[in-house]
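Need a sequence for this fold. Nothing fancy.
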């Protein structure tokens, strides 16, 4: 952590205190974690406080952490092009929610499955900040909308709602953005089948496009890997490791 990042982390901790569940720096970025009940107020202060002045919301996205770090390959490495073989296995993309958490966790609520991540830019301060909040209810994830703080959040929040099913309370027009209006489910959730639920084709007898159950055989081509990105590795550390 650089001196500037260390100073920034201390500044954030002093300003927000117990409202920050976590504050750390990694890969050149400072990240804070905030409870959903506090996230709107914290973001407003980050925008308006004279020592913060994060005028711009660069990005907003949702994340599904179900089965994070688990997969059909136990590995820390993967090729750039993926694997050439298809395999059968216990993929949560085919098993549904039971394959995501396991039987013992379905009846409970982890409060750590769905997160909303905000990337902020301070033009005047020339620095960036990542803010993350975990939704309290896995079955009905809700956070406050920030459209009133940054108008550009409008389509970001609609995209997160469409793909992950996160509800943004107070959004002026929360509709699907990328899928059809009649689409069922949220395709970026980990328990949504990779092959989808339906497929379409033109039916000559009916003279229109019809929806049918998907006929693709499910298989996995690429392993799921959690690893540090070598692009952000410390060059000095790599050089010292090579000389050791």
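Here you go.
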């Amino acid at each position: 952590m650089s001196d500037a990042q260390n100073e920034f982390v201390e500044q954030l901790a002093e300003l927000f205190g117990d409202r920050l569940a976590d504050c750390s720096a990694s890969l050149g970025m400072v990240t804070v974690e905030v409870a959903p009940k506090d996230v709107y107020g914290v973001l407003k202060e980050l925008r308006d406080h004279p020592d913060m002045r994060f005028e711009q919301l660069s990005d907003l996205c949702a994340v599904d952490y179900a089965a994070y770090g688990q997969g059909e390959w136990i590995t820390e490495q993967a090729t750039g092009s993926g694997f050439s073989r298809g395999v059968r296995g216990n993929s949560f993309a085919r098993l549904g929610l039971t394959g995501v958490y396991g039987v013992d966790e379905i009846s409970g609520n982890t409060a750590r499955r769905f997160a909303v991540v905000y990337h902020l830019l301070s033009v005047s301060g020339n620095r960036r900040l990542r803010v993350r909040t975990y939704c309290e209810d896995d079955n009905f994830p809700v956070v406050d909308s920030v459209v009133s703080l940054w108008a550009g959040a409008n389509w970001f929040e609609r995209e997160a709602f469409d793909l992950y099913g996160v509800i943004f309370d107070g959004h002026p027009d929360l509709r699907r953005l990328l899928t059809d209006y009649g689409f069922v489910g949220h395709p970026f959730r980990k328990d949504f089948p990779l092959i989808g639920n339906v497929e379409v084709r033109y039916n000559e007898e009916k003279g229109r496009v019809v929806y049918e159950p998907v006929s693709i055989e499910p298989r996995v081509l690429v392993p799921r890997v959690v690893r540090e990105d070598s692009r952000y590795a410390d060059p000095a550390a790599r050089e010292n490791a090579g000389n050791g």
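For context: The helical segments are 3-16, 36-48, 92-95, 97-101, 103-106, 153-164, 235-243.
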